[in-house]
């Protein structure tokens, strides 16, 4: 049974189950609505409000029972990727009910799907042993016994789920374990009974500082990690042998003269995650989601360099990954040009640092022969057999050379590496940048005369107009302002139509006429990021930044335009005159350029 078949069996099975069936709801974006949360990490995230307000489900979905396959990204275990189970991107199968059915149905459906649809044997199941106001879950235990399961185990805190965040629905769970190809029992499915609302976090609940209140309905929330399920059904020793990964791993194996299993797994996992993050319009940057994406991509390039994969290997990977997923997520094909342009741009930015690591290799080889290189007063070797950690750190700090690649190179040349020294220097570096002041922040305009200042404000309006007219995936990639005209380069997968250009001009001129105030606020960087202020591509920002807003802002800092920017700007848009697009052209694949003037 391949991955596509299991997905469709799961959805069909629940579509027919229970009175009125389950509504199939498409996966929500990897980017949650909540700006303080980086990525969607579980299937229930988008449904959390319905457990407290179940009537809303009737309105939003036309029923109380839902089934989904949700894309998720988790980056907490990123360093463990490469073993048999850890992944950054994964899918989660789940059925949900907001008062539509009870424990008996939830458990029976799971039992039927696992044993009849998938033909797996259940090793054992668990149920909650009870604590405080929460009773021992005898009901679940009895239901499993009636279904003929013999091994039913009472467990404690591990089988009480939630709440996530500061408060929310939570309750006892029952888990299903099956044997994998290695003969180990693995948890396949977790069925949560959201019976309570907790007024504090899980930590507070465990410490006895939060209380539980019964919810008006019994909520069902189940989650089954797709990749692990697949490995079990397909009887594979690890997820990388399933049909979701096998073609990627094969390609890497065939094309790497220096193959290494763990690195190949890291490339497979990270690149797949990167593709899905890009699909949701995130591009690499030095903060937040963009930084996660940058780390994933750069790790891929680093590992590919160690394994000597051919240049442009990643173009082939995009094709393979598209083949694996296009039936389920058609957007992967629709956005392929955009994905290519984002990866290509990051590869280009990372080219020099990668080359720098190879220069380090040559210098280390020379050091073996007695030619000892120095940077300032730090020498490349600490002693005859040990590479200096401080030297590696300095190369990272000055040129951005990847530390893990240089460490790798040194070890392969039989040097020891002083890694404590690297970590110590990194820590100091982080503290230094934390205390960096507003004064260090440049950005903004170099030439401050009346004409350039007006064009600068028009530039901010133009970027907002492009996002409003062409779409939120538009990202600024370069800008230049002279006394005569403004210029903006931006990510966009197509030539703007005449109609789009007209709409963009009209949008800007409307805002000019509206006489909107332009205001500057000093904000902590993390807040500025979380409210979605536009940032300059590749720039490093201090802890406090200035953000320019155009038009009124509400309590959540929503505004027409908000950009990290050093200014200066006009104080009101009515000072600008009339905006006109002079030219729209391509500058590179996936990057367009607009020149505009004020008349
Ligand atoms: Zn600006």
From TrEMBL:
Q: Which SUPFAM superfamilies match?
A: Class II aaRS and biotin synthetases, Putative anticodon-binding domain of alanyl-tRNA synthetase (AlaRS), ThrRS/AlaRS common domain
Q: Where is the Alanyl-transfer RNA synthetases family profile domain?
A: 1-599
Which keywords does this Swiss-Prot/TrEMBL entry list?
A: Aminoacyl-tRNA synthetase, ATP-binding, Ligase, Nucleotide-binding, Protein biosynthesis, RNA-binding, tRNA-binding
Q: Which domain of life is it from?
A: Bacteria
Q: What class of enzyme is it?
A: ligase
| An MF annotation (GO) of this entry | alanine-tRNA ligase activity
Tell me a GO biological process for this protein. Answer: alanyl-tRNA aminoacylation
Question: What SMART domains does the entry give?
Answer: tRNA_SAD
Q: Name one GO cellular component term.
A: cytosol
Pfam families linked to this entry: tRNA-synt_2c, tRNA_SAD
Q: Which CDD domains match?
A: AlaRS_core
- Under Enzyme Commission nomenclature, its number is 6.1.1.7
Under the heading InterPro entries, the entry gives: aa-tRNA-synth_II/BPL/LPL, Ala-tRNA-lgiase_IIc, Ala-tRNA-ligase_IIc_anticod-bd, Ala-tRNA-synth_IIc_core, Ala-tRNA-synth_IIc_N, Ala-tRNA_ligase, Thr/Ala-tRNA-synth_IIc_edit, tRNA_SAD
UniProt family annotation: Belongs to the class-II aminoacyl-tRNA synthetase family.
Q: What is this protein called?
A: alanine--tRNA ligase
């Amino acid at each position: 049974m391949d991955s596509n078949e299991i997905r469709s069996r799961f959805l069909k099975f629940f579509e027919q189950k229970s009175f009125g069936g389950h509504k199939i709801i498409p996966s929500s974006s990897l980017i949650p609505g909540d700006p303080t949360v980086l990525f969607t990490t579980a299937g229930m995230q988008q449904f959390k409000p319905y457990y407290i307000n179940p009537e809303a489900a009737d309105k939003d979905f036309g029923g109380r029972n839902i089934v989904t396959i949700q894309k998720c990204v988790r980056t907490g275990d990123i360093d463990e990727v490469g073993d048999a189970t850890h992944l950054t991107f994964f899918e989660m199968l789940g059925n949900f009910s907001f008062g539509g059915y009870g424990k008996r149905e939830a458990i029976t459906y799971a039992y039927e799907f696992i044993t009849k649809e998938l033909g797996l044997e259940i090793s054992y199941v668990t149920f909650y042993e009870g604590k405080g106001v929460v009773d021992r879950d005898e009901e679940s235990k009895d239901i499993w016994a009636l279904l003929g399961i013999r091994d039913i185990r009472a467990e404690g805190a591990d089988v009480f789920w939630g709440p996530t965040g500061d408060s929310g629905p939570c309750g006892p769970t029952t888990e299903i374990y099956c044997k994998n190809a290695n003969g180990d029992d693995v948890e396949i499915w977790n069925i949560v009974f959201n019976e309570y609302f907790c007024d504090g976090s899980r930590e507070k609940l465990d410490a006895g500082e939060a209380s539980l209140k019964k919810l008006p309905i019994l909520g069902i929330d189940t989650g089954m990690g797709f990749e692990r399920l697949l490995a079990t059904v397909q009887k594979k020793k690890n997820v990388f042998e399933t049909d979701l990964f096998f073609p990627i791993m094969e390609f890497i194996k065939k094309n790497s003269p220096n193959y290494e299993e763990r690195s190949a797994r890291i490339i497979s996992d990270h690149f797949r995650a990167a593709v899905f993050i890009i699909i949701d319009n995130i591009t690499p940057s030095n903060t937040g989601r963009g930084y996660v994406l940058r780390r994933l991509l750069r790790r891929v390039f680093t590992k590919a360099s160690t394994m000597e994969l051919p240049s442009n290997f990643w173009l082939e990977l995009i094709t393979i990954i598209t083949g694996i997923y296009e039936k389920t997520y058609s957007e992967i094909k629709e956005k392929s040009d955009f994905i290519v342009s984002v990866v290509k741009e990051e590869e280009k930015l990372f080219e020099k640092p990668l080359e720098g690591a190879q220069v380090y290799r040559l210098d280390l080889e020379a050091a073996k022969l007695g030619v000892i290189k120095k940077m300032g007063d730090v020498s490349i070797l600490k002693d005859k057999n040990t590479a200096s950690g401080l030297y590696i750190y300095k190369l990272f700090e000055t040129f951005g050379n990847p530390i893990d690649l240089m460490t790798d190179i040194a070890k392969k040349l039989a040097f020891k590496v002083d890694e404590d020294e690297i970590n110590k220097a990194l820590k100091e570096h982080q503290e230094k940048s934390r205390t960096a002041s507003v004064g260090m922040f440049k950005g903004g305009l170099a030439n401050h005369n009346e004409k350039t200042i007006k064009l600068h404000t028009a530039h901010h309006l133009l970027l907002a107009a492009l996002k409003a007219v062409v779409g939120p995936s538009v990202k600024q990639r370069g800008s230049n302002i002279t006394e005569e005209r403004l210029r903006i380069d931006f990510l966009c997968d197509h030539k703007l139509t005449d109609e789009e250009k007209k709409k963009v001009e009209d949008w800007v001129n409307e805002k000019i006429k509206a006489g909107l105030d332009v205001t500057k606020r000093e904000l902590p960087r993390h807040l500025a990021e979380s409210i979605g202020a536009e940032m300059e591509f590749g720039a490093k920002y201090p802890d406090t930044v200035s953000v320019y807003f155009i038009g009124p802002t509400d309590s959540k800092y929503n505004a027409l335009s908000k950009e990290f920017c050093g200014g200066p700007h006009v104080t009101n848009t009515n000072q600008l005159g009339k905006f006109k697009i002079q030219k729209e052209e391509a500058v590179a694949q996936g990057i367009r350029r607009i020149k505009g003037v004020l008349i």
